[in-house]
């Protein structure tokens, strides 16, 4: 399945559930929005050593939606876990000891939801993630939230542009490797069922494999064919061994149990000669 198709279907589903939520016919859906900002390490004070992130801003996202920084944080503060990739089957990789809204931190100069993270130092995976943030390999985290109040946004001609979430409840925050819509990743898994999820890439970006010709030395093969052919002919023409009923076989001098039939011998010899002829 093409990734763009997954995103389109996820957005259609998202719009449908949001419209039902605004009409009051369905509960608010759980949503995810990523944010890419370079993490900073607190240098002094009681927060020294903790990492500071921008969790959310009022900048319009790629879907055309805007999240106003009017957050309901009380439930989150009771269990401020820091997750990896919104994976609720994995133990948290840290905690969020402090979260707040601060003006002037967004790209447009507006307010932003800020958070500190204390990574679990006894968890090797958590420390790997922390190190990747420190080295700039990872740069994104994503908020999982539930809209409490929202309205649709339209341009001057009445065309739909997206949604404005005027009040939201923060559910959790996750470090993510790819700042993609996590709902799209979940939906892709649902659409794939038990089959693996495959995202197609442009084949022109890959060079075809180069197969180098290999020179084969057939002299050893020829020798082996000759030896086998000779043994087959000998087995075919030799007299069958007649065993004396009173003679006891010993393990030190075992006698042949069977001989090749003439038909099988002729067939094998013919096959070997055909192989030799092909290699000449």
Note the topology.
Layout: H1 3-23, E1 31-36, E2 40-41, E3 51-57, E4 66-67, E5 71-72, H2 74-78, E6 81-84, E7 94-95, E8 99-102, E9 112-119, H3 124-134, E10 140-154, E11 160-176, H4 182-192, H5 219-237, H6 262-279
Parallel strand pairs: 4-11, 5-11, 6-11
Antiparallel strand pairs: 1-10, 2-3, 3-9, 6-7, 7-9, 8-9, 10-11
Helix pairs in contact: 1-4, 5-6
Tell me what the structure shows:
30% of the residues lie in helices and 25% in strands. It has 280 residues and is of the alpha+beta class. It has helices at residues 3-23, 74-78, 124-134, 182-192, 219-237, 262-279; strands spanning 31-36, 40-41, 51-57, 66-67, 71-72, 81-84, 94-95, 99-102, 112-119, 140-154, 160-176. The chain folds into two domains: 3-201, no CATH class; 215-239 and 258-280. The radius of gyration is 36 Å and the shape is elongated. The two termini are 49 Å apart. β10 and β11 form a beta hairpin. Residues 181-189 and 194-209 have low confidence and may be disordered. Strands 1, 2, 3, 4, 5, 6, 7, 8, 9, 10 and 11 form an eleven-stranded mixed sheet that branches.
